[in-house]
């Protein structure tokens, strides 16, 4: 048998999977009610018998591979199982049956994984969503959800996705990098770490800014570790990713609408509710919408030391993005008033970047020193050494954050 990417092999796998589903139904076996060993033995026996009866020319290696993949189809998420089990994979991006990409150490690369066809991709997506009570069909062609292990899933199918079903998985890890790890990997210097520690303990309002995949959540998680133990912290996230080893923490998570389109709980509602919970600090995993209004006002009215992240490529772009979020979410104020609100609320912006080799680092830390003439005046407190982007560094590899 040819390599796994051969269409003949994919057609064979489709036939065997169909037969396996029939056999499970005939035997009355419910996958969720039998042990892994029993199910594997059942799959192994029936796949081997099917191959023998049909006199298929499979090598021992190909037969073992087929058995493993059919087991994954029956018990798990099919071709995604090896990628989900691989700790080095951070993101899984499925653009179609033959276009699967993964991010490893900050670098996006094509995977050898493939699906049989579009229907196969959709079947796996629906299997992922089934335990979550989420639907995916023509009436509701896109979904954003969180798996029980904390991984984030986004899926979209035709007619919205013109070239076929698409799936994105941001894997959740409980092994967050420590401060020593980030220093050792060159994501920040000891000088930067000392500065950030002082800023958090000094109750400065901090915004972590950066593009997609620059490590914003990792840095926010790191900063949260420096919060004094006698303070009450409320966290608000779309997907619970922060892991704070803190004795007094309340974790809140947004909720998407149900299948009837009701029941949604937004980050903005949670920030408003958090203000009634007597927090010393509020941490918002990421500001994307109207929650920015309440967060800035909280920062400005007695909740010093609050933190959040924002998508922006530079510190100045972050301020422009905040202005835009305020405007589109109905904050009715003049340009000068908006500038004063932002300038008086934010104390520090921690800007992150990702280099061409996938390495992520803190590029600069700026302090907001606004005055009546310029509410957005900044002072640079830290800037990454120039040598981090030398040709030798760019080819050295090794991501961090």
UniProtKB/TrEMBL annotation:
Gene3D superfamilies: 3.30.450.380, P-loop containing nucleotide triphosphate hydrolases. Residues 202-356 form the AAA+ ATPase domain. It comes from the Bacteria. SMART domains: AAA. It holds the Pfam family T2SSE. Belongs to the GSP E family. This is CpaF family protein.
């Amino acid at each position: 048998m040819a390599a796994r990417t051969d269409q003949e092999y994919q057609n064979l796998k489709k036939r065997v999977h169909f037969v396996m589903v029939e056999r499970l139904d005939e035997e009355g076996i419910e996958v969720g009610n039998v042990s892994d060993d029993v199910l594997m033995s059942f799959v192994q026996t029936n796949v081997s018998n099917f191959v023998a009866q049909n006199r298929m020319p499979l090598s021992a290696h190909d037969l073992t591979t087929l058995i493993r993949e059919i087991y994954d189809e029956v018990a798990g998420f099919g071709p995604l199982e090896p990628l989900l089990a691989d700790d080095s994979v951070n993101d899984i991006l499925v653009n179609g049956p033959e276009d699967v990409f993964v991010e490893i150490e900050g670098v996006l690369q094509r995977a050898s994984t493939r699906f049989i066809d579009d229907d196969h991709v959709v079947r796996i997506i629906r299997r992922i969503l089934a335990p979550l009570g989420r639907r995916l069909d023509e009436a509701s062609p896109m979904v954003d959800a969180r798996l029980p292990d904390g991984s984030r899933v986004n899926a979209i199918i035709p007619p919205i996705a013109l070239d076929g079903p698409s799936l994105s998985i941001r894997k959740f890890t409980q092994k967050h990098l420590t401060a020593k790890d980030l220093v050792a990997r060159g994501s920040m210097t000891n000088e930067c770490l000392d500065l950030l520690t002082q800023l958090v303990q000094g109750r400065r309002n901090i915004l972590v800014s950066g593009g997609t995949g620059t490590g914003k959540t990792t840095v926010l998680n790191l900063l949260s570790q420096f919060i004094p133990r006698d303070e009450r912290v409320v966290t608000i996230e779309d997907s619970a990713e922060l892991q704070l080893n803190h004795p007094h923490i309340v974790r809140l998570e947004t909720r998407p609408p149900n299948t009837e389109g009701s029941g949604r709980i937004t980050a903005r509602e949670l920030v408003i509710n958090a203000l009634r919970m007597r927090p010393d600090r509020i941490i918002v995993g990421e500001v994307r919408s109207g929650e920015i209004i309440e967060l800035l006002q909280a920062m400005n009215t007695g909740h010093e030391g609050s933190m959040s992240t924002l998508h922006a490529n530079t510190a100045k772009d972050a301020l422009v993005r905040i202005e835009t979020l305020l405007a589109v979410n109905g904050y009715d104020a003049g340009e000068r008033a908006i500038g004063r609100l932002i300038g008086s609320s934010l104390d520090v912006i921690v800007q992150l970047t990702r280099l061409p080799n996938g390495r992520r680092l803190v590029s600069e830390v700026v302090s907001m020193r606004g005055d009546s003439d310029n509410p957005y005046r900044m002072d640079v407190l830290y800037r990454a050494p120039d040598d981090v982007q030398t040709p030798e560094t760019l080819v050295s590899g090794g991501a961090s954050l």
